[in-house]
Specification:
The protein has a 5-stranded mixed β-sheet. It has a 5-stranded antiparallel β-sheet with strand order 3-2-5-6-7. Strand 9 and strand 10 form a beta hairpin. It has one domain. It starts with a helix and ends in a 14-residue tail after the last helix. It is of the alpha+beta class. The longest helix is centred in the middle third of the chain and has 20 residues. It is built from 4 helices and 10 strands. The chain is globular, with a radius of gyration of 19 Å.
């Protein structure tokens, strides 16, 4: 009898918790790199560091990060929280309740870009800041990337209570 109760409790605890919450947690380590190295970055939450560096950031929260360095144009990039692949696994293994848990705490999401790797433009050069992949290869300009995700990120920042309306969110580069 005790074995049946223990088994029922174990099954209930697994089905009531989200798979992504258990496997990934609600935070994600995000790396920040820049060319040139030594840029100062600042997030909306006021976290600062000098590149290369990293922070634990909430998976479910959109963000904006500003890079500054002497002799270079400052650049701001949107960080987008995107639904990850754990959602499908959650429906199979964790069921509806697990999916709701993960969706509500953001554990099923991932932050993009990661790493946040920026090639900054020298002041007055007229060159665009570039978003790079982990190997230093160009993905796009920061402006092109920001334009692709702007609407979603700006709505996310309002939904997080950081701004009263989308019009109040400062534009990124």
């Amino acid at each position: 009898m005790k074995l049946k109760i223990a088994s029922a409790i174990a099954i209930a605890s697994v089905s009531l918790s989200g798979c992504a919450t258990v496997l990934n947690g609600v935070n994600q380590p995000v790396e920040f790199e820049s060319e040139p190295a030594g840029a100062t970055i600042e997030t909306l939450a006021g976290q600062t560091c000098t590149t290369p560096c990293s922070f634990e950031m909430r998976r479910g929260d959109d963000n904006m990060v500003t890079f500054t360095a002497d002799g270079y144009e400052s650049v701001t990039i949107y960080m987008q929280s995107r639904t990850g692949g754990s959602v499908a696994g959650n429906l199979l293994a964790g069921g509806l309740i697990g999916g709701v848990v993960d969706a509500s705490n953001g554990a099923s999401n991932n932050l993009y870009p990661d790493p946040v790797y920026i090639r900054m433009a020298p002041t007055g050069s007229g060159e665009p800041a570039l978003l790079l992949d982990k190997d230093g290869e160009v993905i796009s300009t920061v402006s092109e990337y920001n334009a692709e995700v702007a609407e979603d990120v700006r709505e996310g920042l309002v939904g997080q209570g950081l701004y009263a309306s989308v019009d109040d969110v400062p534009p990124a580069d």
